[in-house]
Protein backbone atom coordinates (compact mmCIF):
# COMPACT_ATOMS: atom_id res chain seq x y z
CA UNK A 1 0.00 0.00 0.00
CA UNK A 2 1.53 3.28 -1.10
CA UNK A 3 1.11 6.13 1.33
CA UNK A 4 -1.14 8.97 0.23
CA UNK A 5 1.52 11.75 0.39
CA UNK A 6 3.78 9.69 -1.86
CA UNK A 7 0.96 9.17 -4.31
CA UNK A 8 0.26 12.88 -4.21
CA UNK A 9 3.90 13.81 -4.78
CA UNK A 10 4.23 11.26 -7.52
CA UNK A 11 1.15 12.55 -9.25
CA UNK A 12 2.42 16.12 -9.09
CA UNK A 13 5.75 14.98 -10.53
CA UNK A 14 3.99 13.15 -13.32
CA UNK A 15 2.07 16.27 -14.22
CA UNK A 16 5.28 18.26 -14.24
CA UNK A 17 7.50 15.81 -16.04
CA UNK A 18 5.45 14.56 -18.94
CA UNK A 19 4.73 16.57 -21.98
CA UNK A 20 2.39 15.87 -24.80
CA UNK A 21 4.19 17.62 -27.62
CA UNK A 22 1.81 18.78 -30.27
CA UNK A 23 2.43 16.78 -33.42
CA UNK A 24 1.42 17.75 -36.93
CA UNK A 25 -1.83 16.03 -37.87
CA UNK A 26 -1.01 12.81 -39.70
CA UNK A 27 -2.87 11.80 -42.80
CA UNK A 28 -5.91 9.65 -42.10
CA UNK A 29 -6.88 6.86 -44.42
CA UNK A 30 -9.79 8.12 -46.52
CA UNK A 31 -11.43 4.72 -46.28
CA UNK A 32 -11.45 4.99 -42.50
CA UNK A 33 -13.14 8.38 -42.64
CA UNK A 34 -15.70 6.96 -45.04
CA UNK A 35 -16.34 4.11 -42.60
CA UNK A 36 -16.85 6.54 -39.74
CA UNK A 37 -19.34 8.45 -41.83
CA UNK A 38 -21.20 5.25 -42.67
CA UNK A 39 -21.19 4.14 -39.03
CA UNK A 40 -22.61 7.47 -37.99
CA UNK A 41 -25.55 7.02 -40.32
CA UNK A 42 -26.17 3.49 -39.09
CA UNK A 43 -25.77 4.08 -35.39
CA UNK A 44 -27.09 7.59 -35.09
CA UNK A 45 -30.27 6.37 -33.46
CA UNK A 46 -28.97 3.80 -31.02
CA UNK A 47 -25.33 4.58 -30.52
CA UNK A 48 -25.48 4.27 -26.75
CA UNK A 49 -27.02 0.85 -26.90
CA UNK A 50 -24.64 -0.28 -29.60
CA UNK A 51 -21.45 0.45 -27.77
CA UNK A 52 -22.91 -0.18 -24.33
CA UNK A 53 -21.93 3.12 -22.76
CA UNK A 54 -23.68 3.40 -19.43
CA UNK A 55 -25.81 6.47 -19.10
CA UNK A 56 -24.00 7.24 -15.89
CA UNK A 57 -20.59 6.40 -17.33
CA UNK A 58 -18.17 9.04 -16.22
CA UNK A 59 -14.49 9.55 -16.76
CA UNK A 60 -12.10 9.41 -13.89
CA UNK A 61 -11.60 13.15 -14.21
CA UNK A 62 -15.09 13.92 -12.90
CA UNK A 63 -15.54 11.19 -10.33
CA UNK A 64 -15.90 12.49 -6.79
CA UNK A 65 -12.63 12.17 -4.88
CA UNK A 66 -12.52 10.03 -1.75
CA UNK A 67 -10.53 12.70 0.02
CA UNK A 68 -10.85 16.10 -1.69
CA UNK A 69 -7.79 17.39 0.14
CA UNK A 70 -5.39 14.83 -1.21
CA UNK A 71 -6.37 13.91 -4.71
CA UNK A 72 -4.77 14.83 -8.02
CA UNK A 73 -6.47 13.77 -11.23
CA UNK A 74 -4.01 13.32 -14.06
CA UNK A 75 -5.22 14.11 -17.55
CA UNK A 76 -3.39 13.99 -20.87
CA UNK A 77 -4.80 15.84 -23.86
CA UNK A 78 -4.31 15.79 -27.64
CA UNK A 79 -3.26 12.17 -28.10
CA UNK A 80 -3.12 9.38 -28.74
CA UNK A 81 0.45 9.77 -29.89
CA UNK A 82 2.58 6.76 -30.90
CA UNK A 83 5.75 8.25 -29.42
CA UNK A 84 4.65 9.85 -26.14
CA UNK A 85 1.59 7.89 -25.05
CA UNK A 86 3.43 4.56 -24.49
CA UNK A 87 6.03 6.38 -22.37
CA UNK A 88 3.28 7.91 -20.24
CA UNK A 89 1.55 4.55 -19.88
CA UNK A 90 4.75 2.94 -18.65
CA UNK A 91 5.23 5.55 -15.94
CA UNK A 92 1.59 5.39 -14.85
CA UNK A 93 1.93 1.61 -14.54
CA UNK A 94 5.12 1.93 -12.54
CA UNK A 95 3.32 4.06 -9.93
CA UNK A 96 -0.02 2.25 -10.25
CA UNK A 97 -1.55 5.59 -11.14
CA UNK A 98 -4.68 6.22 -13.15
CA UNK A 99 -5.25 8.96 -15.69
CA UNK A 100 -7.77 10.15 -18.24
CA UNK A 101 -6.68 10.57 -21.84
CA UNK A 102 -8.74 13.21 -23.63
CA UNK A 103 -8.40 12.18 -27.24
CA UNK A 104 -8.54 14.00 -30.53
CA UNK A 105 -10.66 11.86 -32.83
CA UNK A 106 -8.36 12.50 -35.77
CA UNK A 107 -5.46 11.06 -33.82
CA UNK A 108 -7.53 8.12 -32.60
CA UNK A 109 -8.32 7.24 -36.21
CA UNK A 110 -4.65 7.52 -37.10
CA UNK A 111 -3.37 5.43 -34.18
CA UNK A 112 -6.02 2.89 -33.13
CA UNK A 113 -3.39 0.57 -31.70
CA UNK A 114 -2.48 3.27 -29.17
CA UNK A 115 -6.14 3.73 -28.27
CA UNK A 116 -6.37 0.00 -27.55
CA UNK A 117 -3.18 0.06 -25.52
CA UNK A 118 -4.46 2.87 -23.28
CA UNK A 119 -7.70 1.00 -22.57
CA UNK A 120 -6.08 -2.39 -22.13
CA UNK A 121 -3.80 -0.86 -19.48
CA UNK A 122 -6.91 0.13 -17.52
CA UNK A 123 -6.70 3.86 -18.18
CA UNK A 124 -9.69 6.05 -18.97
CA UNK A 125 -10.42 7.50 -22.41
CA UNK A 126 -12.59 10.54 -23.05
CA UNK A 127 -13.26 13.09 -25.76
CA UNK A 128 -11.38 16.24 -26.77
CA UNK A 129 -13.11 16.78 -30.15
CA UNK A 130 -12.32 15.34 -33.57
CA UNK A 131 -10.41 18.22 -35.15
CA UNK A 132 -9.26 20.18 -32.08
CA UNK A 133 -11.15 23.31 -32.99
CA UNK A 134 -12.76 25.87 -30.67
CA UNK A 135 -16.27 24.55 -30.03
CA UNK A 136 -17.44 27.28 -27.65
CA UNK A 137 -19.46 29.12 -30.30
CA UNK A 138 -20.79 26.33 -32.48
CA UNK A 139 -24.33 25.00 -32.70
CA UNK A 140 -25.48 21.59 -31.55
CA UNK A 141 -25.06 19.80 -34.89
CA UNK A 142 -21.46 20.88 -35.26
CA UNK A 143 -20.71 20.01 -31.64
CA UNK A 144 -22.48 16.66 -31.95
CA UNK A 145 -20.46 15.69 -35.02
CA UNK A 146 -17.16 16.59 -33.36
CA UNK A 147 -17.95 14.50 -30.28
CA UNK A 148 -19.74 11.67 -32.01
CA UNK A 149 -17.03 11.17 -34.65
CA UNK A 150 -14.49 10.94 -31.85
CA UNK A 151 -16.61 8.33 -30.07
CA UNK A 152 -16.80 6.35 -33.30
CA UNK A 153 -13.06 6.54 -33.82
CA UNK A 154 -12.52 5.18 -30.30
CA UNK A 155 -15.11 2.44 -30.68
CA UNK A 156 -13.65 1.53 -34.03
CA UNK A 157 -10.29 1.02 -32.36
CA UNK A 158 -11.94 -1.41 -29.93
CA UNK A 159 -13.28 -3.70 -32.63
CA UNK A 160 -12.19 -7.18 -31.67
CA UNK A 161 -11.92 -6.10 -28.01
CA UNK A 162 -15.41 -4.80 -27.22
CA UNK A 163 -14.90 -5.20 -23.49
CA UNK A 164 -12.49 -2.27 -23.63
CA UNK A 165 -15.45 0.10 -24.02
CA UNK A 166 -15.76 0.09 -20.24
CA UNK A 167 -12.65 2.29 -20.21
CA UNK A 168 -14.53 4.99 -22.08
CA UNK A 169 -16.00 7.77 -19.96
CA UNK A 170 -18.50 10.31 -21.20
CA UNK A 171 -16.52 13.39 -20.43
CA UNK A 172 -15.52 16.27 -22.67
CA UNK A 173 -12.52 18.58 -22.48
CA UNK A 174 -12.97 21.69 -24.62
CA UNK A 175 -10.11 22.33 -27.07
CA UNK A 176 -7.98 25.27 -25.89
CA UNK A 177 -10.11 25.35 -22.75
CA UNK A 178 -12.65 27.48 -24.65
CA UNK A 179 -15.93 27.12 -22.84
CA UNK A 180 -19.28 28.89 -22.92
CA UNK A 181 -22.82 28.41 -21.71
CA UNK A 182 -23.64 27.11 -25.18
CA UNK A 183 -20.84 24.51 -24.99
CA UNK A 184 -22.04 23.32 -21.60
CA UNK A 185 -25.60 23.04 -22.92
CA UNK A 186 -24.45 21.10 -25.99
CA UNK A 187 -22.36 18.75 -23.87
CA UNK A 188 -25.24 18.17 -21.46
CA UNK A 189 -27.57 17.41 -24.36
CA UNK A 190 -25.21 14.60 -25.35
CA UNK A 191 -24.98 13.29 -21.80
CA UNK A 192 -21.47 14.60 -21.31
CA UNK A 193 -19.83 16.34 -18.43
CA UNK A 194 -17.27 19.03 -19.14
CA UNK A 195 -13.87 18.62 -17.53
CA UNK A 196 -11.47 21.53 -17.22
CA UNK A 197 -8.21 21.67 -15.31
CA UNK A 198 -6.73 23.69 -12.45
CA UNK A 199 -3.04 23.08 -13.08
CA UNK A 200 -1.58 23.59 -16.55
CA UNK A 201 1.93 22.25 -17.04
CA UNK A 202 2.44 24.70 -19.93
CA UNK A 203 3.74 21.92 -22.10
ZN1 LIG B 1 -5.87 20.16 -26.67
Which quaternary structure do these chains form? single chain
Give the overall silhouette.
globular
DSSP strand (E) fraction?
Answer: 5-15%
**Measured distance between first and last alpha carbons:** 31 Å
Describe this structure in words.
This protein is of the alpha/beta class. It has one domain (4-19, 28-194): TIM Barrel, CATH 3.20.20. Helix content is 42%, strand content 10%. The chain has helices at residues 4-17, 30-43, 47-51, 84-94, 105-110, 112-120, 140-157, 181-189, and strands at 74-77, 99-103, 124-127, 168-172, 193-194. The protein has a five-stranded parallel β-sheet. Helix 6 crosses helix 7. It is globular, with a radius of gyration of 16 Å. Mean pLDDT is 80; it is low at 7-24. Bound molecules: zinc ion (ZN). Zinc ion is lined by residues 77-78, 128, 132, 175.
Walk me through the topology.
Layout: H1 4-17, H2 30-43, H3 47-51, E1 74-77, H4 84-94, E2 99-103, H5 105-110, H6 112-120, E3 124-127, H7 140-157, E4 168-172, H8 181-189, E5 193-194
The chain binds zinc ion (ZN).
Zinc ion binds at residues 77-78, 128, 132, 175.
Amino acid sequence: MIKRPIVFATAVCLVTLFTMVFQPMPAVNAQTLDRIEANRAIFHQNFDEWIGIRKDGRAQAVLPPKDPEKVVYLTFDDGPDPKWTPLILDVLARYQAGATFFMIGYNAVSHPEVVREIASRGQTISVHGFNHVDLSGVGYTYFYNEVHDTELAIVEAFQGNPELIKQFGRCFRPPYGKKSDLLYANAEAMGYEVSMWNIDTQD
